[in-house]
Structures are given as C-alpha cells and as structure tokens.
Amino acid sequence: MAKYSTGNSSGGGSGGSCELCGKASDSLTEASVAGATLHVCTDCASHNDAAQPTKSKSEGNAMSEQDRKRRAAQRTARMDDARKGDASHWEEEGTSYDSDPLPYLVSDYGERVIDARQEEGLQRGELADELGVQENDLLAVEQNRANRAGVGGSVIEALEERLGVTLSESA
Questions:
Q1: Full-prediction pTM beyond 0.85?
Q2: In sequence order, which residues have a C-beta less than 8 Å from that of residue 112 and are 6 or more positions away?
Q3: Is 107 helix (H, G, I), strand (E, B) or coil?
Q4: pLDDT per residue over 3-19, tens digit each?
C-alpha cells in the first residue's frame, strides 16, 4: 500500500524504499503525486504530477495549452448552461429523468444483475438488445454506477422483470 513521506530521506540518489509502491531502490527521485511530495522509484516516477508530456517543446506545449483552453471553455459553457437550466445540447438523446426517475437501489444491485444474467446464459449485449436498452446503460448498472451514468428507472424495472431480481429498495 502507499506510504507517506516522513521527511527522513534526503532526496534523489539516497537508498531506501519507494514511498508509493514500497520497492527498495538505490535510485529514488522526488515526485509530486496527488499533492504530496514523495521519494519514488523509477517505475513510479511516471506518476509525477509535475512531469510534462514527452512531446517536442514548441509543438507539444502549444498543443497542451490549446487543449487546456478548449476544455476550460467547454466546462465554462456547461456551468453557464446549468445555471440557466439549459443543458439539453450537452446531453445525448435518451432518458427524460423527470419522467423516468431512478429508484433507490439495493447496495449490491450490480452483482445481482451480473449473477442473474449469467444464470440465464446471456451476454451483456444480448440482454441489452432484448430489453431495447443501450449496452452502456446495462454496463453502468452492472458496475454499480447507474446513478452517475443517468440510467433511467425504466431500465431497472425492465431488468427486474426480465431477470426476476429485486434491484430497488421497497419504500
């Protein structure tokens, strides 16, 4: 497991253990990982937040700056639309969440779907086609992330009915 810097090592070149993976190494370098300054081995050095991509300096930095500005503009536009209540052009065609709310789900709903689907001898794509739902929605349910993926309640109901499982909590 990850270790945290105790400040005892003096930096690169000193022997010791990598503070990220724990591997003993005579060649540790200082790296910023998730806001913490750690002494890491060469294998973990790629996790250094301060490391720059290995592109040519003139072209690589210009491209990353351009990408950064594009992503920032997109985020700003999304936040502005959310404040105005108009995010429709950012969402894909699909569920109307007001008319198809996701019910409260049991904690192991993803495992229940996987087990029941496999008992039926169905592949994920086959079940999605049979139910008329997107395979990505079914995958989100199986990975316990239906809420974050915006899966509608009708998908849960269809899975409960087809597979004979209980996925939603009773009120």
A1: no
A2: 106, 165, 166, 167
A3: coil
A4: 454 444 444 445 688 88
